[in-house]
From TrEMBL:
Keyword terms of this UniProt record: ATP-binding, Cytoplasm, Magnesium, Metal-binding, Nucleotide-binding, Transferase, tRNA processing
Gene3D superfamilies: P-loop containing nucleotide triphosphate hydrolases (3.40.50.300)
Gene Ontology terms: biological process: tRNA threonylcarbamoyladenosine modification
Domain of life: Bacteria
Protein name: tRNA threonylcarbamoyladenosine biosynthesis protein TsaE
Cellular compartment(s): Cytoplasm
Record-linked InterPro entries: P-loop_NTPase (IPR027417), T6A_TsaE (IPR003442)
Amino acid sequence: MFSVITHSPEETWELARKLAPILSSGDVINLSGDLGAGKTVFSKGLAVGLGIDEPVTSPTFTLIKEYMGRLPLYHFDVYRLSSPEEMEELGFDEYFYGDGVSVVEWGDKIEELLPDVRLDIRLLRLVDDEFRRIEVTPQGDVWQEKVDQWLVRE
């Protein structure tokens, strides 16, 4: 696991933007953390890094929003799901194993449906409300290499 401290929403956004260039088709990112921890801020930075111009908002009520950029971005928010079966009704596997990048806010609620090879990111609020500790856990060798490019070599 890697841990990064950001001091503002802008730094969290920028950290995500820097991840985007190393993403490829079929990548899945699981974002977890309390309400207001910065999951959507992270998703917005990622979208800009993928060349997406339209505003990114949390898909809390629609469950998924699709955006077109260098790669398609499939932005899920599964906070309101009552069971993983609801995710199956969406045809999640077509997204997770498709030609875009899937970002799943509250992915810990459907962990059994997430691919084994993925990037887990947990955002934690620190004492100062603007500060975040971002815990990055690569699942699989491919993600270990990508995280090395993103965080270690930077």
